[in-house]
Amino acid sequence: MAESGYDHGGASITDAWEEQAEGWIRWARTPGVDDYYELYNLPNFLELLPPPGRRTVDLGCGEGRVSRTLRGLGHHIVGVEPSAVLGRAAHDADPTIPLVRADGVAVPLASGIADLVVCFMVLQDVDDLTAVCREIARLLRPDGVACTAIVHPLASSGFPDPGGEFQYVGRYLEVMRNVLLAERAGVEFTFHSAHRPIEAYSRAFEAAGLVIRAIREPAISDALVAADSRLARHRLLPNFLYFTLGRVG
User: According to the model, what pLDDT value does residue 219 have?
Assistant: First the structure.
């Protein structure tokens, strides 16, 4: 199901990611390819997380790299992933991490199971944002928190639009499907996602009974810019946006 006003182009984003799952595994696991993740995104995101509690749910865990990192930091982790290929890759990389194959709108885990729900670079890749947010709220304990990371809407509004133009903020207020071919170090991957303005995320959180406790827009450090000048634009415009969420009441 897709949210009102959102045209997913005839195939769900989940299906598109399943079709390209093997490509994502290569992208995520080839050293130096996903340097945004290694040097910029993940280190900043980890600073937002609370200490390990009773249970952490990694919703949309993909091939498992965040789950493995959190396990190493002491989290009692359960991964949730709709893709059979990505879920199998996550299990093969670390069979000791429990994994549930499920869509984010219907997770077969008990309500209130999680002190922490991690949703890292996932919410821009779902077709029904409000339904996934409701499931996040259901999984949380009353005093639990969810930490999410998304492509910053300032960045996703500038992906190539269906007409082939590059409009950096020209279509910010629209909800639209994005398809972006990326290549780095000889590895290619086509990202499928949805651009939504920040208000769309806020409204989905409200509808799900979640409140925003913190917002972060991580900036690139001077050291990273000195090492790779192509990262310099992120000193002016952030590439990622983080939310810490809690349940209402």
Answer: 87
